[in-house]
């Protein structure tokens, strides 16, 4: 038991988005689980016994290779390493770790800490990044602050708080905008942090074998224009179409695009291309993930990454009768979509 990897969850969201509210709720509902919480700020409130709090100062260090996108949080590394050691020695018992970032934090260096430091990677498994968005102030925050937009781009799961303070139309518009920034993160409204624990833990956002879930509506909207049906239950004033005026009003720098093809990839070409891409665009790439159809293999290849850190693995076999298809989603800041799509196209057999 103590030898198994400790799951870690990053809880992020802009100032006042409801992180603490959600965390308290989760801690009170996590029946039987002991959760270590790491906060990168001092809370003035009393923390009960089950919660461990470590004071951590914001400090981002640059790694030797000089890549600005490959940073780890040294304070976090030390805290995680101390916690794991205490757990090994039996001095502390906990089943998982939640890291609550400050509202202005960039989740990138926090996430990378789990992949770039061997000692941390041997003790922990990053499960997911959860991003809270304030329904009332989110629109403005996304307009004004890149931190808020990056938090969306990194997310495995979006929680929308305070929708009780907004109209249905406002909420729908915000969720629509977020979906374009990050199509792979499911969206859930939360009322004062009320969420089923299954939406919070063991999401396997960084698991190479996890299925790639992209909202089919998004795929349709992206590739075929406006011939799809709109979100079933929202009574959008603009009817069936995806191109609401609000959609065009925001040209968010955090964007996503999807690559799909029925043709197989040439593995060597693709490896070269992706290697070059992450070298050049690493700082701008937030998250990317794909299920790949490779020539010469009867198995799926799964890949995913954060900034320049990319991992890939053999997945399950293509099932008999299953349509072989590559599907990749890239989420980043001002990515040159056309260059990347054309480049990928050229890696096909
Ligand atoms: N109306 C409403 N208020 C909420 C909801 N969720 C949280 N709040 C309130 O929003 C305020 C901020 O919530 P916090 O949980 O402190 O937010 P936070 O993200 O931890 O804030 P910082 O740590 O300052 O970034 C508090 O007053 C909460 O009670 C919600 O669903 N609806």
From TrEMBL:
Matching SUPFAM superfamilies: Hypothetical protein YjiA, C-terminal domain, P-loop containing nucleoside triphosphate hydrolases
Matches recorded under InterPro entries: CobW-likC_sf, CobW-like_C, CobW/HypB/UreG_nucleotide-bd, P-loop_NTPase, Zinc-reg_GTPase_activator
Pfam families with a match to the protein in the record: cobW, CobW_C
Catalytic activity: GTP + H2O = GDP + phosphate + H(+)
Domain of life: Bacteria
Protein name per its UniProtKB record: GTP-binding protein
Any one GO cellular component localisation term in the record: cytoplasm
Function: Zinc chaperone that directly transfers zinc cofactor to target proteins, thereby activating them. Zinc is transferred from the CXCC motif in the GTPase domain to the zinc binding site in target proteins in a process requiring GTP hydrolysis.
CobW C-terminal domain mapped to chain residues: 254-348
Protein family (similarity comment): Belongs to the SIMIBI class G3E GTPase family. ZNG1 subfamily.
Species of the source: Rubrivivax rivuli
Gene Ontology molecular function: any one: hydrolase activity
Keywords of the record: Chaperone, Hydrolase, Nucleotide-binding
Annotated region (Disordered), positions in chain: 223-248
